[in-house]
Task: inverse folding
């Protein structure tokens, strides 16, 4: 079946279309979807075959995956990370939903789900209703990478139509929620006890 380019309203996602995307994810599909930063490519966290396919598409071996978990809310985050201390929790509450990816100590579920001994996990709660609605209705996160451009000058493609032309033979569905930004999330590593910005992207990190 041909890969659809599915328009979904960026502020008020249509339930019928969200259900179409959920059907695709639950069947093991890999999708491209909008976030509050750049478009992401992802799949259902609980589908190992889909994760393997995602790795092939982004050309990363499973043991080297640095993929983010796209969560709907903090209760979802808490299932996949070691217990947060009060300062970590306060920092996440201050910045999420928003354009930040936090590297945290992985909880015991993560190695079992991913099939590799992962000690850390990237966590995102994007400030965009489409991915959060998908994670809410799946009742677990999407596992995701950013959609990068092969063009070294323009690292991230902002036009979903252009993204579709590149990926339509590789993925199962592309969501079109309009142009994205071209700056990825800021990555903050919290595994050493102090916040360390490992990639400055969108968003102003609180001092």
Result:
């Amino acid at each position: 079946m041909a890969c659809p380019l599915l328009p979904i309203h960026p502020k008020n996602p249509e339930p019928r279309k969200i259900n179409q995307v959920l059907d695709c994810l639950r069947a093991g599909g890999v999708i491209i979807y909008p976030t509050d930063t750049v478009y992401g490519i992802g799949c259902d966290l609980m589908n190992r075959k889909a994760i393997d396919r995602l790795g092939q598409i982004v050309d990363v071996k499973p043991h080297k995956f640095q993929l983010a978990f796209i969560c709907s809310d903090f209760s979802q985050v808490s299932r996949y990370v070691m217990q947060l201390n009060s300062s970590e929790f306060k920092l996440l509450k201050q910045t999420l939903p928003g354009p930040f990816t936090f590297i945290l100590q992985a909880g015991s579920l993560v190695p079992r789900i991913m099939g590799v001994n992962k000690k850390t996990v990237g966590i995102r709660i994007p400030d965009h209703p489409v991915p959060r609605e998908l994670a809410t209705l799946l009742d677990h996160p999407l596992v995701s990478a950013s959609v990068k451009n092969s063009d070294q000058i323009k690292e991230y493609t902002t036009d979903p139509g252009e993204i579709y032309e590149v990926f339509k033979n590789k993925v199962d569905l592309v969501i079109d929620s309009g142009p994205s930004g071209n700056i990825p999330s800021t990555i903050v590593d919290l595994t050493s006890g102090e916040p360390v910005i490992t990639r400055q992207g969108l968003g102003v990190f609180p001092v």
